[in-house]
Amino acid sequence: MSQPLHTSHIDLTVDGDQRSLDIDNRLTLLDALREKLGATAPKKGCDHGQCGSCTVLVDGRRVTSCLTFAVAADGMRVTTAAGLGDADTLHPVAQAFQDEDAFQCGYCTPGQICSAVGMLDEVKSGAPSFVSDDLDAPPELTADEIRERMSGNLCRCAAYPNIVAAIGRAADR
User: Fold this and answer.
1) Domain span including residue 148
2) Is residue 45 domain-shared with residue 96, that is, in the same domain?
3) Which residues are paired to 77 by β-bridges?
4) Contacts of 123 (CB under 8 A, 6+ apart)
5) Which residues pair with 22 in a beta bridge?
6) Burial 131-154 (b: 16+ CB within 10 A, else e)
7) Beta carbons within 8 Å of 97's beta carbon, 6+ residues apart
8) Which H helix or E strand runs over 118?
9) How do the pLDDT tens digits run along the chain, 173 residues long?
């Protein structure tokens, strides 16, 4: 029996575990993760791609999962903040967030951490940002550069100074 036209079968690797789903084509990656797979790290904040609390890594690149259809991630590796590090050791970015007290209520923290991991990989690859002085030179990770690259992630508690410090600390590790 064939599937209805508005559904698809997808395979994802979520936080290292192979998962298969039959989903409505209109389902967002965020809703697939939270409602179908029980992943609670990505949060539904604005549901419009404006706050970044739903940020996850898809094949290593940061995406706002509330704006990404789950079918677009078929066959890809999805990493949430819960999938970074392991049971005994925090990921270096998560450890830096803890060391710098870079959270208050913690709602945005999983998205902030995933975004920071993706952003640090972008910096390592030499990708410039809007505030990069020289587009051909390797980016220098200044506080302004961190703030610009993390501008898609909002924190209602205004823990920004500590978030910037945590990302700087993680970059130095």
Assistant:
1) 92-172
2) no
3) 13
4) 139, 141, 145, 149, 171
5) 9
6) ebeeeeeebebeeebbeebbeebb
7) 103, 109, 112, 113, 116, 163, 166
8) helix 109-124
9) 566 679 999 999 999 999 999 999 999 999 999 999 999 999 999 999 999 999 999 999 999 999 999 999 999 999 999 999 888 899 999 999 999 999 999 999 999 999 999 999 999 999 999 998 889 999 999 999 999 999 999 999 999 999 999 999 999 98
Domain containing 160 — which CATH number?
1.10.150.120
Buried b (16+ CB within 10 A) or exposed e, 7-36: bbebebbbbeeebebebeeebbbbbbbbee
Q: What are the beta bridge partners of residue 173?
A: none
